[in-house]
Each structure stands twice: as structure tokens, then as C-alpha cells.
Amino acid sequence: MKKTIFHIIPTLLLLSFLGCKSKQDSAPESIKLDTNTFFVAVNGDDTRTKEQANNPSTPWKTIQKAANNAPSGATVIIGGGTYPEKVVLPISCNGTAAKPTIFKNKVGELPVLDGQNAGVRFTGIFGLKGNQYIIVKGLKTQNGFWTGFYAEESNNITFDSCFTFNTVASGIYVKTTTTLRITRNNVRRACQLPGPEIPGGIGSQECITLAGVNDFVISNNEVWDTDFIGQGGEGIDPKGGSYNGEVSNNYVHDLFRLGIYVDAGSKEAYNIRVFGNRLEKTGGLSIAGELGGHLRDVYLYNNLVVNSRSSGLTFQNIGNGKFSNIYIVNNTFYNNAQTGFAGEIANYSRNTGNSNLVIKNNIFYNKVANSRFSIWHDLASPHAISNNLYFDFKVSNNNANSFNRNNLTDSDILLDPLFNDMDRNDFSLKPNSPSINTGVVITLPNSSTPLFTTDMNGKARGTRNWDVGANEF
User: Fold this and answer.
1) 209, 229, 257: which is the final residue of a domain?
2) In a domain, 45, yes or no
3) Please, which residues have CB within 8 angstroms of residue 124's CB and are 6 or more apart in sequence?
4) The model's pTM
5) If DSSP codes are grouped into helix, strand and coil, which group holds residue 407?
6) What are the tens digits of pLDDT across the range 348-383?
7) Is the CB of residue 246 less than 8 Å from the CB of residue 273?
């Protein structure tokens, strides 16, 4: 009996010890909080310490307070509600490649930064200058003078899943920055006048603007609802010598001006891919060297351009910029040229230095009464045009150097492409479409490697006899 009692007593002591340890583990939550995570809420208090702001129950009140106090690699979690403030990130909160600094929304909530239509030109509601390794995610800016989100002279910057609404200039504007990602954002009513009209002011810049940016991705954004006729309003514009980037899988619609615009400006811009984008009711695609610049090695493929007000794609002659190695291939153009002197592709450039302008494997479907031409070019010599489907084919006024029936090749098709359901904007191909297996594999000069390997939906193109248009059957 004593032996039994002897064994019971140590057991009770052990249980008592474990019980005490359990109570210590359940001590106040602040002991266990991540000291590099900070919270902001509209009902917060900026007099609180950093240690208090580590706790979601005692947040700061303003995002600027968090930005001023967040160390490198911090995560700032911002609750829903409206913040009537403008935020500028200091250098002190810069992150690193291993641990970027993150400003993001609280899960399930939307923080709204309201610029109240006040400010000065070329600033933003959420601004970065000289910053690096910053991720901004799930925030909304509205009523911005000048822009919504802004970055300059920075590197490794990401704007992801954000919203902008009603800005005088760009929803997102980035200048002289390296390694930029603009993904999954919704940019609405950019380049507009703010609520109370600014004397002498009109909308400016583009909805998403890049100027002098190296290594960029603008992907899976929705850009829309800009009908104001001002100085700006184009949808997406990598310009000013931007290079080494892509504009991909964006949905751009209901814009008065161009949907996507690639402009070298006065500089050299190169190695830019524009693919998988869907443009509806915009001013179409356009490329330029507005200030005499040189645009080269630009690849526009697998895009769908529908009901453009002007031409489906335009080479601008503003500033007499030069074009080299421009590939317009495997796109679907449908019922563009809704107004004005326009058609499917218009090359107004008269620069005799242009070279290697390739237009192949495209579908040109146009039953619009206003449409004036399928392809227009003032200088015929640098073009390589073949393997396109035209329905209907329209000559370009039979001027010298214009594109007419004499320029068609045996590989061109003058038939209905047989889309599945145009009324529902389904431009995939029916099984008996003449577009199937009538295209060519697109490679660059002196290369046997395909320029791309899938259609706009990610379906494999194969190694021979590509289908014409943006969709592979």
C-alpha cells in the first residue's frame, strides 16, 4: 500500500508542474506576438508604442505612423475603413531580398486611402522614392491628385491586388525604377478630373504608367472606365525608354483612349512582350517613338482586340520614331475602327530606318461599315506580311505603298474564321475553322526556337502548323 502511495505522489507533483507550465504558455498574448508585425486601424492610437502596435488589439491609427516606425522587413497589417492621409515611405523601412517590407490589408477587409482631391503634380497618395524591396498589397487609393500609387528611383517594388479610383493622373505611376511587378490590380477612372474641377486642369498621363523602368511585369490587371477626353487616359503605357519587360494577360476595357501603348519617347526601348491581353472598347494597341526614339524588339502576340474606336493596332508617326524587329503575330482583331479614319493595322510611320516589321498569323474580322482598310502602311519595304486571315479584306485606298490585293500571298485566307460565339465574346475556333493549321511557327531571325509556345489561354501551339489568331483549337 505504501508503495502505491509512493508512486502516486510524484505523479501528482509532475502533473502540478505541467499545469503551471501550461498557465505560463497562456500568458498575455503580447508576449508571443511577432515583434516585426505591426497593426493599423481607423480606431487606433498613434501615441502607442511599437510594442503595443505589435498587438492587433492596440493598433496605430495612421499608416504613416507605421511607415515611419516599421523596421526593415516588417509587415504592416492595415484594417478596413477610410484613411484620409497621404503616405510616403521613408528609406528606413526598406526591406531586403530575403525579407521584403510588406504593407497589406487585414484579411477580408479593405483599407481605403482617400486623397481628397488635394495635392501637387507628380505625387501620389501612397508614394515611394528611393525605396527597395517593398510589397504593397490589398490597399485602395481614391480621389487622388496626382496619382494613386507612386514609385520613383526605387528597385524591387510590387503593387499587388490593389485598387485605385478617380485620380487626376495615373492610378499607378512608376519612374526610373528597376525590377517592378504590377499584378492583379484594379485601376478604375484614372486620368480624370477630381470631384471639384481644378482650374485649368485636365486628366493626364496613363492609367498605369511606366517611365524609364527596367525589368517589369504588368500582368493580370483590370484597367477600365475612363471616358474623359483630356491629355491622357491610355490604359497601360511602358514609355520613356522602359525595357526588358512584359504586359500580359490584362483586361483593359471601356477607355476612350488607347488600351495599351508602348512608347520609346526620346530614348531606346527594347525587349518588351505584349501578350495574352484582352482589349474591348478602347482605342486599341499602339506603338511609338513620340520624341524621335527607337523602339525595337517588341513582340505583340496572342492578344484579342475587340470593338476598338480607332484601329486595332497603330504605328504612330509622332516625332518620327524608328521601329525595328516589331512582331505582330497570332492576334485576333474583331470589328475595330468604330470611328474616324481607321482599320485593323495602321502603320503611319515614314521613318526610312524602319526594319523587320512582321505581321503574320493574325485574324482580321471586320464587318464595321466605318472600317477603311485591313492594313495601311506608308512604307512597304520593311514589312513581312503573310499567313493572315481577312474577313472582310479592305484595301487601303490603293495609294502607292499601301496594302492592297496585289500584296496578298497564297498563304493568306479570305474566309470566315468561324468563331464559336461572337455574341458572347467567345473567339475560340470551331472544328471546321479555316484558321486551323494554316499559320506558321514564329521564330526570330537566325533562330529555330519559337518566339512563344502557347496561345492566349495557355494551350500548346505545337511545333508546326500553328493556328491563325490568338486561340489554338
Assistant:
1) 257
2) yes
3) 86, 141, 144, 146, 147, 148, 149, 150, 173
4) 0.91
5) helix
6) 999 999 999 999 999 999 999 999 999 999 888 899
7) yes
